[in-house]
Amino acid sequence: MRVDIFRKKKLNSAGLILLVCVVTFIAITITEFSLAKGFAAVPKAIQWSFSNFYPTKDSVTKLPDIFAKLIETLLISVAATTVAALLAMLFAVLGSNTTRVNAFFGGICRAIATIFRNIDITAWAMILLFSFGQSSLTGYFALFFGSFGFLTRAFVETIDEVSGSSVEALKATGAGYFSIIFQSVIPSCIPQIISWVLFMVETNIRSATLIGLLAGSGIGFAFDLYYKSLNYNAASLVVIVIVISILCIEFVSNYVRRVIL
Fold it and tell me: Which of 23, 119, 150, 206 lies 20 to 30 Å from 55 when distance is taken between CA atoms?
C-alpha cells in the first residue's frame, strides 16, 4: 500500500514537471525568446553599465533634488501604510472568525479585503490615473488600497491564531465585546501587527519607486526623468540612493522586530 502511494506521488511529481516543461517550451516558442541570445547579451549589458551608468561630479549636484524626491516617496509610503493598517485592523476584527459580530458581516469584510488584495498596486495606479492624473495622490491611494487588502488578510490570520483561547476564556467570564477586543485581542496581537506593518512599509517603499513612474511623483519619477533625458549618470545615482535607503530601512525594521518579538 505504501509502495503504491509512493509510486503515485512520484508519477504526480513527474507529470507536474513535464507539464511545466511543456508550458515553458510553448511560451519560449510563442515569444520567440532565445536563451543563447539572452546569455550572450549579458556581457554587453555589463560593459555598457560600467561605461555609462555610474555617478559623476555633475550628477552629484542633483543629490538635493533626489533626496527631496526620496523623502516624498518615504512619507507617502509610511502614510499610506499607517492609514491602511488602521482601517485593516477594523476590518480584521469584524472579519475574523474569533471576533466577528456575525458571519454575514464577517464574510463581507473578508470579501472586500480579498478584492483589494488581488488587484495589483500597479493596476490600482493605472486605474487611479483616470481620476487624479499624475500626482502624489495617485501613488498614495494605489499604495493605500494594496496595503489595506494585504494587511486585512494578515491581521485576520494573526487574530485567529493568537487570540482564540484568550477570547474564549473572556467570553466564559461574561466579558463584553469591546472589553474582549481592547483587553485581549489587540494587546496579544500587537507584536505581530507591528511586524506586518513594518513589512508593508518596506514593500511599499520598493513599490513606490515603480508607482512613481506611472504617477509622476517621488523617486521613481526622478529616475524616469533622468533616464529618458539620457542623463544616465544621474539615473545611476538615483538607483544607488534607492538601494541604500532600502537597506537602511530594512536594517531598522529588522532591529525593531528583534526588540518587539
Answer: 206
- For 15, the domain range is 2-52
Final residue belonging to a domain, choices 11, 31, 52: 52
Say if CB 151 and CB 85 are below 8 A apart. yes
Question: pLDDT tens digit string along 208-250?
Answer: 878 877 777 778 888 888 888 888 888 888 888 888 888 888 8
Residues 125 and 244 in one domain: yes
**Percent with pLDDT over 70 in the chain:** 90
Domain match, 10 and 75 both: no
Residues 65, 178, single domain; the answer is yes
CATH code at position 144? 1.10.3720.10
User: Are 27 and 140 members of one domain?
Assistant: no
Residue 18 has pLDDT above 70, yes or no: yes
**pLDDT tens per residue across span 76-100:** 888 989 999 999 988 888 887 777 7
Same domain, 240 and 159: yes
Retrieve residue 185's grid coordinates. 485581542
Q: What is the number of domains present in the chain?
A: 2
Tell me how far CA of residue 171 lies from CA of 50, 92, 174, 180, 182, in angstroms: 66, 19, 5, 8, 13
